[in-house]
Each structure stands twice: as C-alpha cells, then as structure tokens.
Amino acid sequence: MSKRVERSDRQGGPDSPAAVLPRPGAALRWATNAGYAILLVIMALVPSMSSIAELSPPDWISHAVAYGVQAALIFWACLPTRGRNRALLIGVVGASGFGIVTEALQFFQPSRSVELEDLAANSVGALLVCCLIVGVARLAGRRTG
Questions:
Q1: Among 4, 29, 45, 105, which lies 20 to 30 A Cα-Cα from 143?
Q2: C-alpha span between 110 and 99 (Å, rounded)
C-alpha cells in the first residue's frame, strides 16, 4: 500500500503537494515561451552596449544559458501532451532552430554579425539543459522508486 501512495504522490494524487498547486494550462505555457522568444529576438537585434558587455559573462556562456532556458520552456510546454522523451527532443530542436533564426535576423542588422560560435553555443546550451532535465528526472525516480 505504501508504494501506491508513493506512486500517487509522484503522479500528483490527491495527497501530494503538487495537487495543492494550480497547474498552468497550455495557454500559459506557450505564452511564457512566446514572451521569452520575443525577449531573445530583442536581445539579438539591439546593438550591444560596451559598458554592459564588460560586465557580462563570455558571449558563448550567455548564448548557452539563454537557449538552454528556451529549451527548458519548450520542454515544459510540450510535456503534458507529448511525453518526456518527445518533449526533450522538441525542446532541443526548437531552441536550436530558433537560435538559427535569431542569428539569421542579425545578418540584416548592421551593428550585429552572424557567428557560427553563437549557433554552436545555442545548440550546446539547449542540449545540456535537456540532458540536465533527464539526469534530474532519473535521480528523482531512483529516490522515490
């Protein structure tokens, strides 16, 4: 019987902490994605300010983190309808593809340039975050199961 309680807790049963918290609907999940995507486009197209650039981490780290977050948001939006594995794949491909789009848009911005290193950092960041999601899920599964 204790295994049943654990299982229902993991699945968000009536006694689990997750049952108390409201679950965001699909509209909120995708609106969050859209808002973040707009933020990324703005950051990609606005000319960089040298005073801020001096204080920020290396460019490749910024790209990896930014597109890793986007991959996690895409995963979060797809998870309820696609399942974990497919949502992870969509997250990596979606964030990497969006990175290609934002780099292509920079081609038309005179103060910006398209860099292959940025494209690589976008994809690596998306992949690393999705690997982190898998690792955390496996650790959580071992701890509770």
A1: 29
A2: 19
pTM of the model as a whole: 0.76
- For the residues 110-129, what does the mean pLDDT come to? 93
Residue 46 domain-assigned (yes or no):
yes
The rounded distance, in Å, linking the Cα atoms of 71 and 96 is: 8
- Within a domain: residue 50? yes
Number of folded domains in the chain? Answer: 1
Q: Is residue 28 part of a domain?
A: yes
Q: Where are the alpha helices (DSSP H) in the chain?
A: 2-10, 17-20, 26-45, 50-55, 59-82, 84-106, 116-144
pLDDT of residue 101: 95
Does any domain span residue 13? no
Owning domain of residue 48? 24-144
Q: Which two tokens stand for residue 37?
A: 């995507």
